[in-house]
Amino acid sequence: MTLGNLTGISAVANVQSRSISAENPTGEPGQGGRRTEGTGAHAARDLGQGWKVSPSIEIGPGETATLADIAGSGCITHIWLTTHTDNWRRLVLRSYWDGDEAPAVEAPVGDFFCSGWGRFAQVNALPVSVNPNGGFNCYWEMPFREQARLTIENTSDEKVIVYFQVDYWLGEVAAKSAYLHAQWRRSNPLPSKTVHTLLDGVEGPGHYVGTYIAWGVNSSGWWGEGEVKFYLDGEEYPTICGTGTEDYFGGAWNFDLGPDRGGYAEFSTPYLGMPQVIRPDGQYASQQRFGMYRFHLPDPIRFRESLRVDVQALGWRSGGRYLPLQDDIASTAFFYSSKTSTTRPEAPTHDVMEIC
User: How many angstroms separate the CA atoms of 233 and 314, rounded?
Assistant: First the structure.
């Protein structure tokens, strides 16, 4: 499976490319660069219309802004977005498909783009690319048949500035194309001897295509012995059960090259990676924090009726015994479903998302 056929969309000739940004809020033909008011109006005052008058939007405290509201049938193919790093866990991105009032995508902006800790790290994956300094890009196929609506909620008590562009095409969508979903959950801290749930009760049919985890360690020693498990179609025990956290994300032996070679080693590849390791600074940044992703593009996990996914948090204690950990684990799970919405957790709030 590749990005080009995640949802069964085939190449068709009768489509029209469109793009929505602050310069062209409706995406209509010939309507870009015509704004006379906007966040760049002061800088363009000597140049006038057509000279970057409206490159971004301002979102007030507690407000929700609509990035795109597209009528008809088509597919979003690329989203570019940037905002100050302080906002990455203050803004909630949502998408709604075909008039459904419940969101299919609901996640902090940073976590949706594999950047959960409010600090830049280069991400070189196929569906997500993060470039200096905080240029967020995603290439998930997002088909819709009647309508697509993307919003951003500002949960903070300060106004924020967001730059964005949504690229899409209008035209016929294949009958069996599935809808993109993304769900965010955080355990902070994870209760003792429990698992962190990534998904629970998700309705199918569908296929699971990606995991991003921002993992904050609250103890000394190695933290990634826990298994990632997939329970398909109501199973009591998982059909897919990994061998350890670092193994699921494509690494081995604790991601550790040893003290002579720098210890933990960051890496970013098309399908999996650990692009971010935040090391304690001996003063205020007291905890180790990690950002990891795995995208199941060649190996989607398919389910018919339902899907549950969880991960254990395990370290080591004396006597070669496992130590259940109480870490800070925030996960974003990406999947496609035939439904426009499904079971989801409570909406992220400012205090729940906050990095502290």
Answer: 26
